[in-house]
C-alpha cells in the first residue's frame, strides 16, 4: 500500500488525462458518424463506406478504452480511500464520485456495445447520443464545478460545453484523418473537409465560451494567471490552442480552395497539418488531466508569485559549471539567500495528495547540484541545435553526427539526476523506482537514448531512413507532453512554482521542435524548408532556457 | 518592450488565457482553519473548524489529533457542519506540541490530506 500511495498522485493525473482522451475520441467518433458521414452518405463515393467502417471500429475501441480507463481510475481512487481510512470497499463505492464513475463506465460500455455494428437505425443513433449525453453529465460530477459552493449551474454548463467542443474537434481529428487518407476522390475530400471545418468552428466557439466562463470563476484575476500553478498550466494550454488554431486556419484555407475547385488546393498539407493537430491535441488533453491535480487559482490567495519574482528568476546569469560534492551540505552565501527568502514566505495551510508527503527544506548544495545538471544539459542541447543548423549548410556535413551528443547527455543525466539513487547514492537501483520522480527521470533517459540512436542512424542513411526518421520527432514531442503531464504540489509553493515557470516553456519548445521536424519529414516545398529551420532553433531555445534555469 | 506596447499586449493575452482554463476538477484545500497553523492555545479544549474551498464528503473524511507524546486519537466530526467544513471538539489537551491531521474527500472525488501543528500552553 505504501508503494501504491507513493505513485497515487501521478497515477491519478495520468488516468485523468487518458480518460479525457478516450472520452474525446468517443464523442469525436460519434459526431463524425452522425454529423458528417451519415448526412453526406448519398453524396459520397463507395470509399466513404470503408472509411465509415474504420471509423466505427475506432469509435468502438475508444468507447471500450473509456470504460476500461474509468474503471481503472475508480479502482485506484477506491484503493486509496480504503487504504488511508478504515473504510470497507462498499463504503468507498458509495461515494458520489464512485457512483458517477460507475455510471460513466456503464455508458461507455453501452456505447461500445451499440457501436459494434455499422448498421445504425434511428433508434440506435438516438440511444448512442443519449448515452454520450448521460456520460458527460455524470462526468460533470467529477469536476470541480460539482463541488463548488457558489452558483454551480453556469460552471457545470460551461464544463459540459468545453468537453463537448474538445470531443467533437480534437476527438474528431483521427476520424478526419482516416477520411482524408481513405477517400481519394476530390469531391469526397471537399465535402468531408467542408463539413468537418464547420463542426470544428462550432466546437472552437463552444470551447472558448465554456473556457471563458470557467476562467472568470476559477482564475478570477490577472495575477492568478502568472502567480499560481493553475494559471501557468492554463497558459500552456492556451499556447497549444494557438498552435492548433494556426494549423486549423491553414486547413480552413485549404478547404476553401477545395470548395472553389482549385486544382492546386494543398491537400497533402492539410493531411500533414491534421497529423500535427492530432499530436498537439493529445498533448492538450493530457495537460488538462494534469490540471486536475490543482485547485483553482482563485482559491489560492497566499504565496502567489509576484511579477518581480518571476522577472528576478528569469534574468540571465552565468551558468553553474562546477558541482558541489555529494556530501557537501551548505554553500553559505546561497544558503543565507534561501533562508532570507523562506523567512519572508507567508505560510498557507499545506495540503497533500496521499503519498506526496512533506516537501523537504531546500539546501544550497541540493540547488547547486540541480542547477549544475540543468546547465550542462543546456550546453548539450544548445550544441545539438547549433550543429543541426550547421548541418543544413553545404560545408557543414561533418556536423551530422550531432545525435551522438544525446548519448553523452543521457549518460550524464543517468549519473547526476538522482543523486540519492544508485550509482552515486545509497538507494539501490530497483528500490529507487518507487520514487515517481526517479522513475520519470529514468524514462527520460531511455527516451533520450532512443531518439539519439534512431536519429544518428537516420543522419547516416539520409533519404533511405524511411519511417525510422519519424521516431525522433515523435519522441521529442512526447518528451514535451510528459513535461506537461505531471502532478503538482497542491498548495502554492513558490519554489516549485518558479521551477514550473521554466519547465512549461521547455515543454512548449519541445512540442514545437518535435512537430516542426515531423512537418519537415512529411512534407516538401516551402513549409518543409521552413520547418527544417524551426526545429533546430527550438532546440537552441530549449538549451538557453536550461542554461538560465535556477532554483534560487 | 515599451510600456505602451505591453499595455496593448496584456489585454490580448488575458483574453486568450480566459478562453482556455480547461476542465477543472481539483483537490480540496483549506481556506481557513481553527486552530490556525502554528497557533498557541491557552485552554485545554478547542473547537476545531476547518473550512475548505469545496464541498466535502463528511462520511469519508477524517480528523485525528497527535499528542506531544506521539499518541493518536480520532476525533468525531460534527454531523451538522456546513457542506464545506469539518468541525469537531478536542478536549483534555495537555501542554505541548500537537498536530491536527486531516484527510478529506471532496465530492468530485479527490483525496487531500494535511497537518496543522499547534501548541497548547
TrEMBL record, chain A:
InterPro entries with a match to the protein in the record: CopC/D (IPR032694), Cu-R_CopD_dom (IPR008457)
Pfam families per record: CopD (PF05425)
Keyword Transmembrane helix: yes
Subcellular localization, as worded in the UniProt entry: Cell membrane
Location of the Copper resistance protein D domain: 191-291
Spans through the membrane: 20-37, 58-85, 97-115, 122-140, 160-180, 201-226, 238-255, 276-298, 372-390, 402-418, 438-456, 468-491, 530-547
The keyword Protease is assigned to this record: no
Alphabetical UniProt keywords: Cell membrane, Membrane, Transmembrane, Transmembrane helix
Membrane topology summary: Multi-pass membrane protein
Location, primary (coarse class): membrane
Alphabetized PANTHER family for the sequence: INNER MEMBRANE PROTEIN YEBZ (PTHR34820:SF4)
Protein name: CopD family protein
Species the sequence originates in: Bradyrhizobium denitrificans
Taxonomic path: Bacteria, Pseudomonadati, Pseudomonadota, Alphaproteobacteria, Hyphomicrobiales
UniProtKB/TrEMBL annotation, chain B:
Compartment(s): Cell envelope
Major localisation: other
Residues spanning the signal sequence: 1-26
Keyword field contains Cell cycle: no
Top-level taxon in the UniProt lineage: Bacteria
The keyword Signal belongs to this UniProt entry's keyword annotation: yes
Database matches in Pfam families: CopC (PF04234)
Domain CopC intervals: 27-120
PROSITE patterns, A to Z: PROKAR_LIPOPROTEIN
Transmembrane segments annotated in the record for this chain: none
UniProt keyword terms in alphabetical order: Copper, Metal-binding, Signal
Protein name: Copper resistance protein CopC
